[in-house]
Each structure stands twice: as structure tokens, then as C-alpha cells.
Write a structure and sequence with these properties.
heterodimer; A: 279 residues; alpha+beta; Thrombin, subunit H; six-stranded antiparallel β-barrel; six-stranded antiparallel beta barrel; B: 171 residues; mainly alpha; Arp2/3 complex 21 kDa subunit ARPC3; 7 helices
């Protein structure tokens, strides 16, 4: 017994290493297992609050870029206003619209913390369940797509950005019927790869890559980026297309969270399909 | 008592510097410096092992909480703490403990501190970035990130040490 104790105390550093390494590796693996450790991450109220304070300085430094993108968006919205179209009808009357119901609603949110350089990146925003944000909603900016809501607390939520190993956003090349998942290889935060596009497609350089609209998360046609380079995979018949992202993650300050009012309905229907196949 | 206070202050200062400033410094789109490990490097020689490991774990977890990577920095810091004990046991004689209480550049000299800082920084960054990627297939990319980050961290460590170096000489 004494010998055992002597042995342990002689190599105590090694035993400490083993004990603490087991604790921290367990934490590491558990944290990858999404929700379990979610209370500790930065959607946590305290740390979210601290970040918001520090962010006031960062926000000030980025005002130029933010103003720029807001001005651009204003122009875009002005172009869609009814008043900017030529109106040559003489009759005016009030119409109660019963056909068009609002499908997507947008919630404005400010970024309080973000990471860009890690292999898996997250963004924290200052809107949470209080404003109706739920796990799995899509997030875009005025320039393009940003990511998917990952965890939500009362006043904050964290977003799994496109720059993440597990994010797969179905996207297509504008004007073609082909679509495939978008993957980030983890090297440059300005470029992502679009896979599973058949190689008979005649690609134009600088073609726009947009969301496909086949998932319940994003509306159809939201800009993701432009085609930079297309290479054929080793033996397969699919193209790997390098896409330059239109969102500048370095200058990102404000985002919109997309709420799909028909999400539950569509998902229930699709789940029913699976059940009837199993029967 | 003063020693405890200095180290506590250093802990808070380095974590704040890391999560609010250094986290956002990107070199060549590759990686960021991790200066906060300076806290573990500068703990006094006579720190008992149990305390060393607890402090390293706390340091790692504090950085983790701010970067959404629970356990990642903690595990790298624990490995760093272990190799610190090994290197100190090999390179420093026991009887020097009374006259040389702290492993700083001012007391231990340039050659020793450079070796000490370089080895431990490389070990920490190697494990940190590999734990983060968790894939052997991206090893070349990861290794280049390890070297660039280590270089940047080491430069910052020496800048920090030189600032305090002058202060001690004047005394």
C-alpha cells in the first residue's frame, strides 16, 4: 500500500494529466453533441451580456461598411416600391388580399459575437426566444446567406454559420434545375464548395449561386455567392464548384432571422409521408 | 501574497486580452495568436503540481466559455501543464529554487527562456489545433497553422516579457 502511494506521488504530474485530460476531453466530445452543454456556451446570458458591452466599440469601427450595405439595400427596396412603377390605371379601390398570405417574416438582429477563424464557427445575436426565434431558423444578411440558428436562450441565440463542418445548405445555380449541398472545406472564409452538380452542365463564369427553396429554412433565390471555379471530381460524374461567398463575414454586423409561417405544416406533411412508407 | 495577487491579475488580463482582442487578429486568413498560455509559462517554480493543473484547467475553461469550444482549450492547457513539469524537471536543478523563484526572461536568461517558450508553445498549439480539427486528413493544413500561430504567439510572449524585463532591472 505504501509502495503504491509512493509510486503515485512520484509520478503525480502524470496522474494529474490523465485525470484532467479525461475531464476536458469528455467536455469536448459532449459539447460536439449539441444541446448537452449548450447552457455553457455564449448564448448563456452572462457572457452574452459582456460581449454586448464590448461590441459597442467594434460596431463603431465598422459603421462605414454597415452604412454602405444598408444604402445598397435601400436602393434595392426602393426599386421594388409600388411608387417606382409606372401607374397608368385610372381606377383606384381598396382590395382585401385573401390570396397572398405572408409566408416568410424577417426579424432584425445585431451580432454581439462571432468567430471566423476556427474550423467550426458560430455567431451570437441579441435576439432570442422572446422575439420568437427558434432552433433551426435560417439567417441571412443584406448581402447573402449567413447560417442556421443553433441554440436559443431568452435574449440571445447562437448561429451555426456556413463556415462550419456540419452545415449543409441546399443550393442551386440560378437558371438551372440542378441543386446540391454547400460545404466549407475549412481553409478560406471567403470560399465554399458546391457539390453534387452533374458535370454535363455548361457553367458560365460568375454565375449566381442561390438557395434552392427545397428546404423549409430558406426562401427560394436568396443569393449565396458567385461561381469562381469548377473542377471535376476524380472519377465521379459530379462537379465540385468553388463559390465565392457574397457575405463578408469580417464586416458582418446586422442579420435577419427568417421565420417560415408554414414550416410546421410542411414538416408534418413530409413526416406523414415517411410514416406511411413504413407501414 | 503579492505573488498570488500578481498571478491573479495576470490571469484576468491575459484571458480578457485573448477573448476580446487577439481572437479577432487573423494572419493570412490562417490563425490567431494564443498569448494566454503565458500565464502557465510564468507560474513560479515552486507551484505544487495539483495547483498547476487546477489553474491550467481553469484558464482553459475560461477561454473556452468565450469561444464556444468547451473542453478544447482546457485539454490543450492540461497537456501544456504536464510538459511544463517535464521540461522544468529536466533543465532546472532543485537547489536553484531559492535564488530563482520564477521562470521569467529577466531571471532565467534569453537562451533558457527561448527554448522553454518555443517548446511549450509548439506543443500547446499542436494539440489545440489538432483537437479542433479532429481529422488526420487535414494534417498538412493544420501543421502550417500550428507553425504560423506559434511564431506569432512567441513574438507576443517576448514583447510582453521585455516590457516587464526593464521594470525589474531598474529595481
Amino acid at each position: 500500500m505504501i509502495n503504491l502511494w509512493r509510486f503515485i506521488s512520484r509520478f503525480n504530474a502524470f496522474f494529474f494529466l490523465v485525470i484532467y485530460l479525461i475531464i476536458s476531453i469528455t467536455l469536448l466530445i459532449k459539447n460536439n453533441d449539441f444541446q448537452k452543454a449548450s447552457i455553457y456556451n455564449s448564448s448563456n446570458e452572462v457572457i452574452g451580456g459582456i460581449y454586448q458591452k464590448v461590441n459597442i466599440i467594434n460596431k463603431y469601427l465598422n459603421l462605414n461598411l454597415v452604412n454602405d450595405s444598408l444604402a445598397k439595400e435601400n436602393v434595392l427596396l426602393h426599386n421594388q416600391l409600388k411608387s417606382s412603377f409606372l401607374d397608368d390605371s385610372l381606377v383606384t379601390k381598396i382590395v382585401t388580399d385573401t390570396i397572398n398570405r405572408v409566408k416568410y417574416e424577417y426579424i432584425l438582429a445585431e451580432i454581439v459575437n462571432k468567430s471566423i477563424t476556427s474550423r467550426n464557427n458560430y455567431i451570437t445575436i441579441n435576439r432570442g426566444s422572446k422575439e420568437g426565434i427558434k432552433k433551426g431558423m435560417g439567417v441571412i444578411s443584406s448581402n447573402g446567406i449567413v447560417g442556421i440558428v443553433w441554440n436559443v436562450s431568452e435574449n440571445f441565440s447562437s448561429i451555426q454559420s456556413i463556415l462550419h463542418e456540419d452545415t449543409r445548405i441546399t443550393s442551386s445555380i440560378e437558371g438551372t434545375p440542378y441543386f446540391g449541398p454547400l460545404i466549407w472545406e475549412g481553409e478560406d472564409p471567403n470560399y465554399v464548395t458546391l457539390t453534387d452538380i452533374p458535370n454535363q452542365l455548361n457553367l458560365k463564369p460568375k454565375a449566381r449561386v442561390v438557395t434552392s427553396g427545397y428546404s423549409v429554412i430558406f426562401p427560394k433565390g436568396i443569393l449565396i455567392g458567385t461561381v469562381e471555379k469548377a473542377g471535376v471530381k476524380g472519377e465521379g460524374s459530379f462537379l465540385d464548384i468553388t463559390v465565392k461567398l457574397s457575405t463578408n463575414f469580417y464586416a458582418l454586423e446586422y442579420v435577419y432571422v427568417i421565420k417560415n409561417n408554414f414550416q410546421t405544416e410542411q414538416e408534418t406533411l413530409e413526416a406523414a409521408n415517411k410514416e406511411s412508407v413504413n407501414d | 501574497m503579492i505573488k498570488i495577487l500578481t498571478n491573479a491579475l495576470r490571469f484576468i488580463l491575459l484571458v480578457a486580452l485573448q477573448v476580446f482582442l487577439l481572437k479577432n487578429m487573423v494572419i493570412y486568413g490562417l490563425n490567431v495568436p494564443y498569448l494566454y498560455i503565458l500565464f502557465i509559462l510564468l507560474l513560479p517554480f515552486e507551484t505544487p503540481n495539483w495547483l498547476l493543473f487546477i489553474l491550467s484547467f481553469l484558464l482553459g475553461i475560461s477561454v473556452d466559455l468565450f469561444t464556444d469550444t468547451l473542453g478544447l482549450h482546457a485539454s490543450a492547457c492540461i497537456i501544456l501543464a504536464f510538459f511544463r513539469t517535464v521540461i522544468i524537471r529536466v533543465t532546472v536543478q532543485d537547489d536553484n529554487y531559492d535564488s530563482d523563484p520564477e521562470p521569467t526572461l529577466a531571471i532565467m536568461g534569453f537562451r533558457w527562456f527561448f527554448f522553454y517558450g518555443l517548446t511549450l508553445t509548439l506543443i500547446h498549439h499542436f494539440f489545440l489545433l489538432n483537437f479542433e480539427v479532429f481529422k488526420f486528413s487535414e494534417i498538412t493544413n493544420t501543421l502550417s497553422r500550428v507553425f504560423i500561430s506559434s511564431l506569432f504567439t512567441l513574438i507576443l510572449i517576448f514583447i510582453a516579457e521585455l516590457i516587464f524585463f526593464k521594470k525589474k532591472e531598474r529595481k
